[in-house]
Amino acid sequence: ASSSEVAGFTGKRENIRSLTMSGHVGFESLPDQLVNRSIQQGFCFNILCVGETGIGKSTLIDTLFNTNFEDHESSHFCPNVKLKAQTYELQESNVRLKLTIVNTVGFGDQINKEESYQPIVDYIDAQFEAYLQEELKIKRSLFTYHDSRIHVCLYFISPTGHSLKTLDLLTMKNLDSKVNIIPVIAKADTVSKTELQKFKIKLMSELVSNGVQIYQFPTDDDTIAKINAAMNGQLPFAVVGSMDEVKVGNKMVKARQYPWGVVQVENENHCDFVKLREMLICTNMEDLREQTHTRHYELYRRCKLEEMGFTDVGPENKPVSLQETYEAKRHEFHGERQRKEEEMKQMFVQRVKEKEAVLKEAERELQAKFEHLKRLHQEERLKLEEKRRLLEEEIIAFSKKKATSEIFHNQPFLATGSNLRKDKDRKNSNFL
Amino acid sequence: VSAGLPETRTDTAMSELVPEPRPKPAVPMKPMSINSNLLGYIGIDTIIEQMRKKTMKTGFDFNIMVVGQSGLGKSTLVNTLFKSQVSRKASSWNREEKIPKTVEIKAIGHVIEEGGVKMKLTVIDTPGFGDQINNENCWEPIEKYINEQYEKFLKEEVNIARKKRIPDTRVHCCLYFISPTGHSLRPLDLEFMKHLSKVVNIIPVIAKADTMTLEEKSEFKQRVRKELEVNGIEFYPQKEFDEDLEDKTENDKIRQESMPFAVVGSDKEYQVNGKRVLGRKTPWGIIEGNSLHLLEELVADQTHLQDLKEVTHNIHYETYRAKRLNDNGGLPPGEGLLGTVLPPVPATPCPTAE
């Protein structure tokens, strides 16, 4: 591996020779210097626990780190899956660890679990996004950045003894390209030894046949290759968690006391807790961090940037610099925006015109109506005027008649009354 | 549709484009500290060993540049520092080879191993520096080379599909050789260091120190220190990067007493007082490389090797990167490279701690 790396560095330079030194120079302390640096800054380790409510996530974490992280029992009635994160500072000898535990809340409690995995994926992506944003800043401070990316996901499988639940498969398939998954069988003291073997085999075969990529303990370093390979064959780890202590023999050990016996957490015959602790913390913590950074994060970054239209190689296979792409995109974006602005302006003008037309039309109609009404009114008035005139004429005529009849009446009363009477009747009959 | 719509729309559209502050990682800003009385051993401290193993596997790069007029003993010194024939000495040049007309940059890589640690050491020589009659701007090719390495690294870093490990050709340390005149710095020295101290870690070295007596040496050192200070030249370890009091006191001692290092380089061993030392044999005695061990400490040894690389990466490289992105992007500082192109942060907030 080292020689190929060296060859990779050659480039345009002259051949690289191996030299032997005639004395002690002192750079063999380089790894120490590097490590001292990290000790100064402290380490970050972020664990995500995914599992149904009440499956024992918090208890297992407490047991793993031998501390009582404060936590309340979660309710089973959450409408959606949520994630809860807490950071703790632990110290062992001169090593300071910033441990962040992220728990799912309400996982598996909903009636419809189709969207259950989404909040988890979103959370993991959000941490990648935060890191990416920092990395892309012009003035950035990566070496003081609190790395919140999830380094390992402990997936808790229900100890049914049969197989994986569909929810498990669905969730793990969506997580395996984003995070290192270590599946564990929770509350393993409910599964008997023989059942456990069959269960493990069934689980692994299901994972394999569904193409779920779980985390493999690395086997490239000779010193740990053997143990890692052996552990790979023991997955998923069947774990039991407990912070309660029970007296066994003459020691107090962490255990769960049943009427029929005591399940000891750290007894390798009883469960795989010790194996999990070994693998997770003592052997592969650094590898988990490295895989997260070099594999999962890089994948996220690449996808995100490609999504936004950035490529390394443009048309005709000429390498495209990020700068060029960025400028082109910015230009395009500005053009797009201007076009949209224009469009909106046009639309606005159009709308105004239309509205104006409508209003004008309405105005015209109104005017017409008004005219019409005025005319009608006028006609009415004339008619009424006419009627009045007629009426007045009749009144005058009637007054005249009345006057003449009175004169006639007042004349000598000699005329034949009957004639008069007849005349009167005749006149009166005009009015009847 | 209200009046003046296009203008106000633009504003809100603009505010959508300005990226919201990066999503807070869903951890509370102040981590709660659990009492460090862990109830028992867990094994967290094994991470040190895990880390060490990993770094040993990947190996280290170290790139050191030597600048100074020819004949000052650059190659000999480098050979002495790394106890191997790292540089070919000028005296072994073909006699017909002329002094180059301009400053050349020659980078030669070697792999050396010690205690299981593999180091790829690259020595960058600059023949022709200060050797012409007119030496104006002879530092420019050097500055150009240094910036080119930063550019190379930046390009790799900015790729979509990145290499697992970006080859580091950046200059971690530049040894500048001062002529032991005994008087003061030359204008060329000042010009060079003024320009280059902003882009690379400079360690000034007084060459061929065996031409000065002890008093002359300490006087010269003092004068050089004064001149550097007056001209605002910050050499490594730079004052502004002292992290804490401990660093400061340690580095102050180096800065104010030992530097610039007066060295005598030699690749021949002699017996002196029963010890085998590297020295130069003269009629009047065998000269040992005196401040050499301090320089060694700084460059090759325990204390500062990693620090040199870190200052290069975290400070000089970041400065270059920020400047580069600012110039070409025309973006206000602090905004991301892809600031205006990133889609607005989606409406659903990142799940936060309850």
Automatic annotation (TrEMBL), chain A:
It is found in: Cytoplasm, Cytoskeleton; Cytoplasmic vesicle, Secretory vesicle, Synaptic vesicle membrane; Presynapse. The keyword Nucleus does not apply. InterPro entries: G_SEPTIN_dom, P-loop_NTPase, Septin. Keywords: Cell projection, Coiled coil, Cytoplasm, Cytoplasmic vesicle, Cytoskeleton, GTP-binding, Nucleotide-binding, Synapse. Residues 345-401 form a coiled coil. The keyword Coiled coil applies. GO terms for cellular component: cytoskeleton; synaptic vesicle membrane. Its main location: cytoplasm. Residues 41-307 form the Septin-type G domain. GO terms for molecular function: GTP binding. Septins polymerize into heterooligomeric protein complexes that form filaments, and can associate with cellular membranes, actin filaments and microtubules. GTPase activity is required for filament formation. Interacts with CDK14, SEPTIN4, SEPTIN5 and SEPTIN7. Interacts with VAMP2; the interaction inhibits interaction of VAMP2 with SYP. Interacts with STX1A. Filament-forming cytoskeletal GTPase. May play a role in platelet secretion. Seems to participate in the process of SNARE complex formation in synaptic vesicles. Belongs to the TRAFAC class TrmE-Era-EngA-EngB-Septin-like GTPase superfamily. Septin GTPase family. This is Septin.
UniProtKB/TrEMBL annotation, chain B:
One of its GO terms (molecular function) is GTP binding. It comes from the Eukaryota. Keywords: Cytoplasm, GTP-binding, Nucleotide-binding. It is found in: Cytoplasm. InterPro entries: G_SEPTIN_dom, P-loop_NTPase, Septin, Septin3. The keyword Transcription does not apply. The keyword Repressor does not apply. One of its GO terms (cellular component) is cytoplasm. Residues 58-327 form the Septin-type G domain. Pfam families: Septin. Residues 1-26 are annotated as: Disordered. Belongs to the TRAFAC class TrmE-Era-EngA-EngB-Septin-like GTPase superfamily. Septin GTPase family. Filament-forming cytoskeletal GTPase. May play a role in cytokinesis. Septins polymerize into heterooligomeric protein complexes that form filaments, and can associate with cellular membranes, actin filaments and microtubules. GTPase activity is required for filament formation. This is Neuronal-specific septin-3. It comes from Cebus imitator.
